[in-house]
Design a protein that fits this description.
Elements lengths: L16 E10 L2 E11 L4 E6 L5 H8 L7 E6 L2 E2 L5 H6 L2 E4 L11 H7 L10 H14 L15 H14 L4 E5 L7 H16 L4 E5 L3 H7 L2 E6 L2 E7 L5 H9 L18 E11 L5 E11 L3 E5 L6 H8 L7 E6 L2 E2 L4 H7 L1 E4 L3 H4 L7 H5 L10 E2 L3 E2 L1 H14 L16 H13 L6 E5 L7 H16 L3 E6 L2 H7 L2 E6 L2 E7 L5 H8 L3
Parallel strand pairs: 3-8, 3-9, 6-7, 7-8, 13-20, 13-21, 16-19, 19-20
Antiparallel strand pairs: 1-2, 1-4, 4-5, 9-10, 11-12, 11-14, 14-15, 17-18, 21-22
This protein binds adenosine-5'-triphosphate.
The site of adenosine-5'-triphosphate (ATP) has 19 residues, from strand 2, helix 1 and helix 14.
GO molecular function: ATP binding
Organism: Leptolyngbya subtilissima DQ-A4
Keywords: ATP-binding, Nucleotide-binding
Length: 514
Amino acid sequence: MKTAIAAPQIKTAPPELEVINLTKRFGSFTALDQVSIKVTPGSFHALLGENGAGKSTLVKCIMGFYTPTSGEVLVDRQSRAIDSPKDAHHFGLGMVYQHFTSVPAMTVAENLVLSRYDSPQWINWKAEYDRLDAFMATSPFQIDLRTPISQLAAGQKQKLEILKQLYLNSRVLILDEPTSVLTPDEADEVLGLLREEVTAGHLSVLMISHKFREVMAFTDEVTVLRKGKLAGHGYVRDLTVDDMAHMMLGEKTEATPVEKVAIADPRPVLELKDLCADRDNGLPAVCSANLIVNSGEIVGIAGVSGNGQRELVEVLAGQRPRHSGDILVNGEPYQSTRKEMARHQVYTLPEEPLRNACVPHMSVAENMALRTFDCPPQARRGWLLSLSNIRRMAEGLVKVFSVKTPSVDTPVGHLSGGNVQRTVLARELSSTNINLLIAANPCFGLDFSAVDYIHSQILAARNRGVAVLLVSEDLDELLKLSDRIFVISGGELVYESPTAAADIKTLGHKMAGH
Ligand SMILES: Nc1ncnc2c1ncn2[C@@H]1O[C@H](COP(=O)(O)OP(=O)(O)OP(=O)(O)O)[C@@H](O)[C@H]1O
């Protein structure tokens, strides 16, 4: 019988990681073209690029998820065959993802032991806890080993993802947008602690990021990809944000900002009256929510993830039954059916669009047609589909919304995260008759030029008279876009203010549940 053996906890120096002329093709599409990058031991390296530039493909090739078409991965100057994450682990490489991978019902200790590659069949918990206590005492972050994951805040969960890699003795950490689910304070804390480990020479970090502020504050070097090719490299001390943006975009010009205009005769479009909804486990998620969104108004809902926002949006999108209360759209009772959505012109941008707003194995064109496939010109008599019209419409939207996809026939599940987001945005924002738009974290995972674009689209919709409910974990986004702002905490709307009069400190306190 195999018993648990604790992972070695010796702080060895990180190895040098180098990628030489790496090419990755998916069929006839070249996602990476002769890309080289070197992560020197004890450096904090940022990997930048627009959505679809090839960043995830590059790190997936390094970690052995993908087999490169050609090129080499060198660890300590020797070419290595890395065919799986387990091989990568063997060479000291570990990956931390955007989303948490821990099992919510298990404790921190159980998740750490579970993360090991030498999964034991029998665990001596007494000995395991002694070793875990010793590991935790010397690690850069401390988390109580006996706490279930479901009780951890987002920042602690992300710290645990990093701790897992340290526990596995990974010396080169590859982080894929590690702060996207964190508040700015949590992000600074996590990156600051990693920075200390890098400065002490215990770790190297290669971090995919869209946030220039974090790149400038915490990293030493940047490598930039553009359309699958190496577009630049440099030291952060020698570069400005403009330099990096220019490397990412080439000669493209920036979007002109959209100004808000005053709306005449606003009328209530969305009304929530004592709306209550439950979580999957039957416990209350949304408690007696009351709010009105008027035409030509953006109402923002701020809150730390897990405070009922997801369930609220799911109820409005028809993906979760309400427990009680009323929803009115244009003054009429609203049950969020597809028919009602079409009649009242309600559009939604839910979070995690690949899971909540797409059918991953269906093509980009089919996904773009999910709202309109049974209407002319995409269908005759409601059921006779015109595939050529569906493709033609998708080709137009791909151009307008700059979706990077090999073709409109590619399964949407094959697109990069940001391009899945753009596919859904194209479908939901392209109608000229939008009446109500419900958007949840619409810029999650998007590069800065895409964020500007989406913000200008949402503002332009508002200026046309669309009522917008914007649920976001990004307070800066809410302060920039919304006319009125609410805070949701513990499922209750605990604060409301016109955004111009909102006090940031009070917002922060309310978000933290005080
Ligand atoms: N399994 C796959 N099959 C076909 N094409 C793919 C596959 N995975 C990625 N691609 C394509 O490769 C390109 C690069 O994708 P990748 O996910 O590496 O981009 P990225 O820079 O990480 O983008 P983002 O910032 O949006 O996450 C995209 O055009 C994507 O559509």
